[in-house]
Amino acid sequence: MLDDRPYMRPEEPQFRPPLMQQSRSGWAILLTINVVVFLLQLLFDPNSLSERMGLFGQSVVGRWLALDSSEITALLPMQLITYQFLHGSVMHLLMNALGLFFIGRALEPAIGRREMIGLYLVSGVIGALFQLCFAALFPDQFAGPMVGASAGVFGFMGVLARLFPHREVYLLLFFVLPLRLKLHWIFWGSMAIALLSILVAIRTETGGQVAHAAHLGGLLYGAFYVAALVRKGGLMRFLPGLPRIRFVSGDPVKESSATRRRNWRKPKVFNAAEVAEGDYISREVDPILDKISKHGIHSLTESERQILDKARSKM
């Protein structure tokens, strides 16, 4: 497995693959799919963008691909996925695209591309199930067709806020007023808004255009993901042949500045028995191979030689 490193091959080393061969980020893949699907809606099914004109139910999207919580059919398993990539208007797409861009870019370095895509899909399914449950209990307020990526975006927010609760971000309230908030306040604020909107809808017996129950479901699943899955290997650990993720939080905790100055030099220690083989090689072996390529094998310390011997025994 060491010969897949470019500097271990006989030909000239290439430390970065060509542009067309670089893998795309998970958030970028999801964003691209949402935009392409919206363009297809615009070209081939414009009635699906005309909910206020009463034409949505006559469109292909409204009849087959959207998730209609007022009429459950045999297409439900498919609709649990397809509704997540459809949108009702340009503004609807824009808001979800901003969430995928900003939240997805911040989250992906922590959990990886495969986990991002899996998290998006499962959060969307959980959000849809929440909406279906509320529609069964309060059909006048929550029943109706549903489209959009917002349940997946709220899932991203739930994971990011629970992984890095003390990270501070800047928001533009009403796109005008700048606010500086920690992510855990954004998490609890989003949950409070979703719950309050649901209670208002039930109390006033009026529905709305926003699927607040789906938002709540995605957010809660994000919190569950951090509490029960991410530190045990993530979603992909249930699929054979895929490595488990290994997450080490870099979130600042409540400590003095002197403590932070002492700790910043300390390397993160990984147990090779607990880390997947690919992670072990990338974290422990790659720096040693870099050192060999620059200074020669005689520059290695005894501990570095032992790490290489251990890596050979794993291959």
Task: Give me some keywords for this one.
single chain; 12 helices; mainly alpha; two-stranded antiparallel sheet; disordered N terminus; 315 residues; Rhomboid-like fold
Low-confidence stretches: 1-22, 252-276
Question: What is the CATH architecture descriptor of the largest domain?
Answer: Up-down Bundle
- CATH structural fold name of the largest domain: Rhomboid-like fold
The main sheet comes to: 2 strands, antiparallel
Biggest sheet strand line-up: 1-2
Question: Layout of SSEs?
Answer:
Blueprint: H1 26-44, H2 60-65, E1 67-68, H3 76-82, H4 90-111, H5 113-137, H6 139-142, E2 145-146, H7 150-163, E3 168-173, E4 177-182, H8 183-204, H9 212-229, H10 257-263, H11 277-295, H12 302-313
Antiparallel strand pairs: 1-2, 3-4
Helix pairs in contact: 1-4, 1-5, 4-5, 4-7, 5-7, 5-9, 7-8, 7-9, 8-9, 11-12
Quick synopsis:
This protein is mostly helical and 315 residues long. The chain has helices spanning 26-44, 60-65, 76-82, 90-111, 113-137, 139-142, 150-163, 183-204, 212-229, 257-263, 277-295, 302-313; strands at residues 67-68, 145-146, 168-173, 177-182. It folds into two domains: 24-238, Rhomboid-like fold, CATH 1.20.1540; 266-313, no CATH class.
What report would you give on this structure?
There is one protein chain. This protein is mainly alpha-helical. It has two domains: 215 residues, Rhomboid-like (Rhomboid-like fold, Up-down Bundle); 48 residues, no CATH class. 56% of the residues lie in helices and 5% in strands. It has twelve helices and four strands; from the N terminus they run ααβααααβαββααααα. The strands form two sheets. The protein has a two-stranded antiparallel sheet. Strands 3-4 form a two-stranded antiparallel sheet. A hairpin with a 3-residue loop joins strand 3 and strand 4. Helix 7 packs across helix 8. The chain is elongated. The N and C termini lie close together (7 Å). The N terminus is likely disordered.
